[in-house]
Design brief:
334 residues; two-stranded parallel ribbon; 16% strand; binds uridine-5'-diphosphate
Length: 334
């Protein structure tokens, strides 16, 4: 089989850049298109001179660029989106417009050249569902439209509907995957993500900020494991028209996470609790538990995440503060 030609939208972002790494390592060709709004050149700088890698700085709504890129691609992995709860609450207009118009542009370009499309969705679409674990056939229960948090899940639901409609109506080869909390090196805490925030706070000796009472749980999947899942889905003909959860099913409370971060960074940061309204503004709703049912993806492509929470936290710690810096801190006089 010849080398597959992948186009990764949002490929300078946290998850997309890890997928690009994995594709290049496998011998595929990867073109990244990113407008560098939240993506960063530093995430892909090490790939820039690779003969099978190309970076194009553009908006995915630029029809001329996207048409050209789609015309030379076999598979489009569509990650470009507004992400991060904090960003969404702060700028809901941008979130809704980017996510819906961007996906529409990708599907239209893909249709012209019959590219396979893998659409990134999110566990956020399960919203306030309480039936644990969340499986792909479940009803989706979002909060009211007055609460901007839900704009993200709702915009991704429209993306899913649109992608699946292109599949059914136009026979376009579309696969939807729902990413649960995905963490690892290169993720930024700026938009609210808890793991990089806690690690940075702990390394800086600042208070570790747990929102709410910290009893809420999440399951954290290593981004390199998630990248492997997506590449397997991309290579599986049986995935067409399906929706797949991608994540880890080991649950941890945010209080436990904060304690583990403190231990693994050797930090003496205090763990403090902050109300949701203080953290996100009035009327914010969090979900208490979020656990994926992974049986569907496991049955189709035999994938399971392999890295433990400690392995992930250590990788993020080492990324945030490489060893020589850590030694300097450890040996500094107190
Ligand atoms: N969280 C926290 N402190 C922070 C950032 C987040 O306690 O500094 C909590 C957040 O309220 C949520 C969980 O950690 O309950 C995971 O948050 P994140 O934004 O990483 O992802 P989410 O699951 O909310 O999409």
């Amino acid at each position: 089989m010849r080398t597959s030609r992948f186009l990764i939208t949002g490929g300078a972002g946290f998850i997309g850049s890890h997928v690009a790494d994995a594709l290049i390592a496998r011998g595929d060709r990867a073109v990244v298109v990113d407008n560098l709004s939240t993506g960063r050149l530093s995430n892909i700088r090490h790939l820039l001179n690779h003969p099978r890698f190309q970076f194009v700085r553009a908006n995915i709504t630029d029809e001329i660029v996207m048409d050209r890129l789609a015309s030379t691609s076999d598979v489009i992995l569509h990650f470009a989106a507004a992400v991060g709860v904090q960003l969404i609450v702060r700028d809901p207009v941008h979130t809704i417009e980017t996510n819906i118009m961007g996906t529409e542009a990708i599907l239209k370009a893909a249709l012209r050249y019959r590219c396979r499309v893998l659409l990134a969705s999110t566990s956020e679409v399960y919203g306030k569902g309480v039936k644990i674990p969340f499986s792909e056939e479940d009803d989706l229960l979002l909060g009211g439209t007055q609460k901007s948090r839900w704009a993200y899940g709702a915009s991704k639901m429209i993306d899913e509907f649109l992608g699946l409609a292109y599949q059914r109506q136009y026979d376009l080869d579309v696969v939807v995957f729902r990413l649960f909390n995905t963490v690892g090196p290169r993720q930024r805490g700026r938009y609210g993500m808890v793991v990089p925030r806690f690690i940075r706070q702990a390394l800086a000796g600042e208070p570790i900020t747990v929102y709410g009472d910290g009893s809420q749980t999440r399951c954290f999947c290593d981004v390199r494991d998630a990248a492997e899942a997506l590449i397997r889905l991309a290579a599986s003909p049986g995935a067409t028209g399906g929706v797949y959860n991608v994540g880890n099913d080991q649950e941890v409370s945010i209080n436990q996470l904060a304690r583990r971060v403190r231990v693994l960074t050797g930090s003496s940061s205090p763990i403090v609790h902050i109300s949701y309204s203080e953290a996100y503004g009035k009327g914010f709703e969090d979900m208490q538990r979020r656990v994926p049912d992974l049986s569907r993806i496991q049955a189709l492509v035999g994938w399971r995440s392999t890295r433990t929470l400690d392995e992930i936290l250590i990788a993020v710690r080492d990324h945030e503060q490489p060893l020589p810096d850590r030694l300097k801190v450890e040996s500094a006089p107190s």
